Amino acid sequence: MLIAKPIGYEIVKGADNRSQHLKELSINHKIEYDYLCSIEGGYEEDVNGLLFVVSYCIVEDKNGKKSTGKSLGLRITKKMFEYIKEGHSLNKVIEKLNDQLNNKQNGGLTGYLTDGLLSREKVDKDAVISSFISFIYKQQKDLLNNELDIKKTNRK
User: Fold this and answer.
1) Distance between CA 137 and CA 124 in Å, rounded?
2) What is the DSSP letter of 72?
3) Which of 1, 39, 84, 132 has its CA 20 to 30 A from that of 140?
4) Does the model's pTM come out above 0.70?
5) What are the per-10-residue average pLDDT scores of the chain (156 residues)?
């Protein structure tokens, strides 16, 4: 049975597959770019056994350097996770509860779980920002790493 959404590592793999497809399209159509940005949402279980719906973003620059970012995770129940693993869609259940179609386009699971406080777009935006840290926010990251190197040297 097909899973409605990727689970665990499949999320990152899905984002990477999208990125590779974008790169091929860019090459084949001679499209220049500074960055390619690919997003995939799915479900994961953390090291503590907590279950979440999350998004991952992979950004690749024109030189082939990649960076991966992750969104805020929204907790889901074990029952929801098992339902997904059986190949079903939570959006279909939400559509029945709300007596409406196209839940995925009208807030999706994120909107439903937060009663509209968050949207998939907001959560995905955070994954994109996270993935750009290695590019746009590189100076802050490098300064922090350098300071940690100094602290480590001083501890010896």
Assistant:
1) 18
2) P
3) 39
4) yes
5) 76 95 95 95 95 96 95 96 92 88 77 92 94 88 90 82
